[in-house]
Amino acid sequence: MNYRHAYHAGNFADVLKHSVLALILQHLKLKDAPFRVIDTHAGVARYDLTGPQAAKTGEWNDGIGRLLGPGAASMPADVAEYMAPYLQSVMALNAGGSLQHYPGSPLVALGLMRKTDRLMANELHLEDVAALNASIGGDRRVKILQLDAYTALKSLVPPPERRGVVLIDPPFEARNEFDRLAAGLLEATRRFATGTYLIWYPAKDRRAATAFQDDVIAAQYAKAIAMELVVGATRNAFALNACGLLVINPPHTLKATAEILLPFFAHRLAQGSGATCQVRWLGTDSVA
Ligand SMILES: C[S@@+](CC[C@H](N)C(=O)[O-])C[C@H]1O[C@@H](n2cnc3c(N)ncnc32)[C@H](O)[C@@H]1O
User: Fold this and answer.
1) Which end of the chain is flanked by fewer CB atoms within 10 Å, N or C?
2) Whose CA is closest to 265, among 23, 100, 20?
3) Rounded to whole angstroms, how far apart are CA atoms 161 and 235?
4) Secondary structure (H, E, C), the chain
């Protein structure tokens, strides 16, 4: 387990993932009934953008730095409206105005949750679990677990509230991660069919990403969307330049919102030629 998210926090992939997570949470809050957030690969609650790991890659400069950094251009009104919940969760950590900290998924969630909502934050890395305990362990809404993500997933669904979102955000270090993911998803959705599932995946290897989408189509989920963002040629040819989100049981407004947000990201977060995006319905129900 070598992956450390501190090198990547606030990059284009986090911007995409956390803005969509925030939109899903806003949608869940439209009903008074409490919900649960299950974060299978939680990382830590807050990342230091001025620390050595963030400085080594500088990735956040081409992510959140393009949205909130000095000189960031304003956004079209509709984009600003959709991005507001996410951007507020970032600004809440940077009271002085300059970008120094970035929230991990547990903190994006907590910032948007109500008193009655619950967060199950699972993480395998010992150091990250200790950091999670230190920063959010005292919050009565939170339970922190240290299990393998797919074992945690099995044990946490269905949640007692019978509503909520499951975020699955693996580091993709294991060769068989896509296969484990597809299998874990099938099992979890059988137990908790009405939950919303938000899955992040790398899309630089086009064949692997397409094979994963094909597996999702074969699983015949009624409602599923894949959205992919390519930021074009990067300075470092080995760096990630494309990623996707699969959302099962998305809010009914999410596809239309993604069709506005992703073209904005493909333009604002572009790093070189070839930046583009795609929003694709993968469900068996007719497109909403
Ligand atoms: C991409 S990062 C998570 C980022 C976080 N979800 C966010 O959006 O801020 C992936 C995390 O998964 C953890 N991890 C790696 N293998 C795991 C496993 N088998 N089970 C649970 N967590 C794992 C890593 O330590 C890392 O913190």
Assistant:
1) N
2) 20
3) 46
4) CCCCHHHCCCCHHHHHHHHHHHHHHHHHCCCCCCCEEEECCCCCCEEECCCHHHHHHCHHHHCHHHHHCCCCCCCCHHHHHHHHHHHHHHHCCCCCCCCCEEECHHHHHHHHCCCCCEEEEECCCHHHHHHHHHHHCCCCCEEEECCCHHHHHHHHCCCCCCCEEEEECCCCCCCCHHHHHHHHHHHHHHHCCCCEEEEEEECCCHHHHHHHHHHHHHHCCCCEEEEEEECCCCCCCCCCCEEEEEEECCCCCHHHHHHHHHHHHHHHCCCCCCCEEEEEECCCCCCC
Using a 6 Å CB cutoff, which residues line ligand 1? 1, 3, 5, 17, 41-43, 104-105, 122-125, 128, 148-149, 169, 171
As a whole number of angstroms, the distance between CA 283 and CA 281 comes to 6
pTM of the model: 0.98
* pLDDT of 287 strictly over 90: no
Atom 17 in ligand 1: residue holding the nearest Cα: 124
Span 155-168, average pLDDT: 98
